[in-house]
Fold this protein.
Amino acid sequence: MHVEVDVPRCVASGQCVLLAPDVFDQRDEDGLVVLLNENPPAELHDAVRESATVCPAAAIRLEEA
Amino acid sequence: MSVAPTGRVIVVGASAAGLAAAETLRGEGYTGTITLIGDEPTAPYDRPPLSKEILSGWSPDRLPLRAPADLDVLDLDARYGCEATGVNISESTVLLADGTEVPYDGLIVATGVRPRVLPGTPAHVLRTLDDALALKDRLGLGRTLAVVGAGFLGAEAASVAADLGTRVTLLEPAPVPLAHAVGEDVGRVLAQVHLDHGVDLRTGTGVSEVVPGGVRLDDGSVVEADTVLVAVGSRPNTEWLTSSGLTLDDGLVCDEFCAAAPGVYGAGDVARWHNPLFGTSMRIEHRTNATEQGVAAARNLLGAQRPFAPVPYFWSDQYDLKIRAYGHLRGHDEMRIAEGSLEERKFTAVYRTADRLTGVLSVGMSPKGVLAWRRSIALRARWQDAVPASSAGMAR
Ligand SMILES: Cc1cc2nc3c(=O)[nH]c(=O)nc-3n(C[C@H](O)[C@H](O)[C@H](O)COP(=O)(O)OP(=O)(O)OC[C@H]3O[C@@H](n4cnc5c(N)ncnc54)[C@H](O)[C@@H]3O)c2cc1C
Ligand code: SF4
């Protein structure tokens, strides 16, 4: 799985950080998403998929092998 | 109840909640047909930018919620430009406007809301891409705009319009805008921001009808404007369910699992469900809730039986202010400023209902810091444990 984030779309909701804190973080100053791991391990895939689905800005995109 | 992995699930409403439901069904291994029915002509697109970036310059091609290739992977039986007109619960079929009847094993209702309108001359509203493009055409230097309703939607549209040079009159019947949602102190701060940006905000001003060239106020006088935007709230799209036997009461009434009947679930702006975290029924018109509830409804349809107990989240951009709120602020008993100050327009306000911390709203603060308050709300923290007694007590 390969993860991409479209930072200009992000609305800093923090939903992805709540679901997958090992993959997503937020910048301190404005809360925009920071991608920690663009190739997360298999045990995190479900949480990353859910992050992409619930992201209220459709800012997370996945390429699944 | 759970649906068999073959057969058909129908999702009515092809927007944030419906798409999240469809994506979750596939993600959780549902291999049957997923029929996604939406009366708008296009694939699902995002609405929050309609009162923000689209009015100020984003091209509409940034709006689709998924790239075509990502939709293809879901292998949906997508029917856009197609209206559902009824549902027969005992036969498990959905009736479409073209007269066809489609059988289902599971049904997810995600038909959202539509704007309320005012009597008189037709005016602009803001719900669809076409609405936003029509309004955008009417904004700019030398133009005048009357916005009826200073809720979040009206306030956002007024702020973008003013930034673009439009002369804006913002008309609000309540004495303080948004007081019912955020409390009077925060409402007054947001009101002052409009005035600072040259918007002619008139509170305590009811509008009775739209007239050619403006609006008529309750006192009979007329406010002139080239363009009128009506932003006075919305109504759930449930008319198509009227004779279904499903319970309708300001939305489709669902239990804590988002179920309206066996095999029938509701999600998003249209759904009124029992949120066990706050012990109350709620219907929320928030973007995050739409996707989270779409996920929850789809999982429960597949048999998860998990109560949907979210901490609601809402954001709004007005001028240079970023407003973020978690929890259930409506009907709160007290608001306190926990950090920062109202005067500087940088603050975290916390809200008490009975003896619990039930909400937090921040303006200009680090979003990460606000997440700590969210956590306390999710853990049902008691007010006296969560809110330091030293906060700048502003009881209300
Ligand atoms: C301009 C604007 C700005 C917003 N800004 C914010 C914001 O800043 N923050 C925030 O949290 N939220 C915001 N929201 C709210 C957010 O967009 C909604 O909560 C979200 O769109 C709800 O998604 P939904 O899928 O439940 O419903 P909708 O998006 O309303 O989708 C329902 C779909 O169902 C279709 N439909 C209805 N009836 C039928 C039928 N009988 N047959 C077939 N299809 C049907 C509708 O046409 C629509 O396409 C904003 C909304 C608007 C309009
Ligand atoms: S969920 Fe989406 S909008 Fe929210 S912080 Fe993550 S990327 Fe940004």
Notes: Residues A 5, 10-16, 24, 26, 33, 55-57, 59-60 surround iron/sulfur cluster (ligand 2) (CB under 6 Å).
